[in-house]
Amino acid sequence: MINLINKGTEIKKLPKSFMEDVSKEKNEPLFKMKISEILCEQEISTKYSTFGKFENKITVEKILKEKKETNVIKNTQFNF
Question: For position 9, what pLDDT does the model report?
Fold first, then answer.
């Protein structure tokens, strides 16, 4: 879980199908990506029916723009 200073900011869960896919073909490219890139490219879980499909992209862009969540920004810039 990511601890945010602004408690109104929340990273939404990714779809169960994305999280459960453990195939090498699917996961190998993810190791070369930043966490922020993954969150921006993946749709959020369908359980969040009142949010847009790419709500995490909006949240990540907001965090980077405001530069208030420096701990989160540092952690999302690392490749695995």
Answer: 76
Burial of 73 (0-12, 13-18, 19+ CB in 10 A): middle
State whether residue 68 is helix, strand or coil: coil
Q: Given the structure tokens 């490749």, which residue do they identify?
A: 79
What's the farthest any 2 CA atoms get from each other in the chain?
36
Spell out a b/e string for 19-37, using b for 16 or more CB atoms within 10 Å of the CB, else e. Answer: eeeeeeeeeeeeeeeebbe
C-alpha–C-alpha distance, residues 24 and 64, integer Å: 31
Q: Give the pLDDT confidence score for residue 1 in this predicted structure.
A: 42
Residues 6+ apart with CB under 8 A from 36: 60, 64, 76, 77
| 8 Å CB contact between 43 and 53 | yes
Model pLDDT, residue 77:
52
